[in-house]
Design a protein that fits this description.
This protein is an alpha+beta fold. It is built from 1 helix and 15 strands. It folds into 2 domains: 45 residues; 191 residues, Exo-inulinase, domain 1 (Jelly Rolls, Sandwich). 16% of the residues lie in helices and 41% in strands.
Length: 270
Amino acid sequence: MSKASIGVLAAVLVAGAGLACTHSDRDEKKTGNSAAAATHVATQQQPQEKDADEDEEGAPNPVAATAEKPALQQASGQQLFYNFESDLVGQLPAKFHSARTGQGSESTWAVMADATAPSKPNVVAQTSTDKTDYRFPLLIADEGSFRDLDLSVKFKAVSGSVDQAGGLVFRLRDPNNYYIVRANALEDNYRLYHVVDGRRRQFAGANFKVTSGVWHEFRVEAVGNKFVCYYDGAMKIEATDDTFKDAGKVGLWTKADSVTYFDDLRVTAK
């Protein structure tokens, strides 16, 4: 073969190798871009496990709670029901007292008329708009204590810029120690916590649309260490926890500047 022919052949081989390398680089870039895109999509689709309100440790120095007056533990089948119809408008309802977990001003609870009430005309409302974030107004029923129970209430989130929340407390020892199941219309979630020495810790929850300005129903069944929580008749949470094993009082709860209405509070001992 002549030197000229050898030179032409070498040039062809080099050009082919360069073309192959170019295709290879393009394929690698394409593959790399596809993998990056897949990773990005997977990250977007992965549900967010935490939100800003889920897992709070509480105030660094929680205020000491006032001891609760003893209340008779209710026998299985005993029921208490409150629709606030016989209570004076503008006053705290009879057989209840107010309290607060956390910081900020004291809670403001009063009976008021509401044309949309499930049991017309009265509801009980928390109307204070203190924006302190770690502030939980409580309205505690005084008539009895319950261990295993079926507890429910109707509620309507009315307003709030920090929160629009309402909830049920049960097995309450004092304003710093209890279980709470609550919904928040600004966060669209439903959460179950225990509060120990004023510090709140979530141990179960669900995410769904919580609509403000309309009435909804909470319900919780507690038997031993098992809790089943319902929202508008649908089961949303099923969990176990051993923090509070003894009987305690029941009541209503809000958060921060939530203005929330409640009606038809019902509790049955199991």
